[in-house]
What we know:
Number of strands: 0
Mean pLDDT: 82
Amino acid sequence: xxxxxxxxxxxxxxxxxxxxxxxxxxxxxxxxxxxxxxxxxxxxxxxxxxxxxxxxxxxxxxxxxxxxxxxxxxxxxxxxxxxxxxxxxxxxxxxxxxxxxxxxxxxxxxxxxxxxxxxxxxxxxxxxxxxxxxxxxxxxxxxxxxxxxxxxxxxxxxxxxxxxxxxxxxxxxxxxxxxxxxxxxxxxxxxxxxxxxxxxxxxxx
Length: 205
């Protein structure tokens, strides 16, 4: 069996494992997800997957397809268990993703959609990092560590170093690494009480 395929399968399996744990931590109230961040990421992930597929992406995009499904589940759960605050900027990001799709349709080239949504995905990750900076201890350290490792493994699934195959994977090694490091920050007890009280009453904060 092609070793690129083996690494792709391993990375996809790790995605199911880590995101399954992340989803479980949401349901238990350990993780308080940011709806806007996960909605933007899931939307852009679907566009990245299909844009990469039609650009001739190889085995490394299997991971992206699996993540698109799992992140969509997380976005849906965020409506019930997470922090809901969609800013004007985040609405602009969603509109930008749609613009990328429109450009794809009119130019018959998925490259524009791919690049725009890789940027949007990175900004969506920034929203999660910002939430974690404001509210420490609201993300699972283990889940983000495995995410970093997962993307590192998927690098070995890359058959040819092209934008469609490699750019998204390399960027996510960096962004997941930043979120992972931020999980070590501690939250003040009063701030933690405020956050969980707001979550219990479904108050936007």
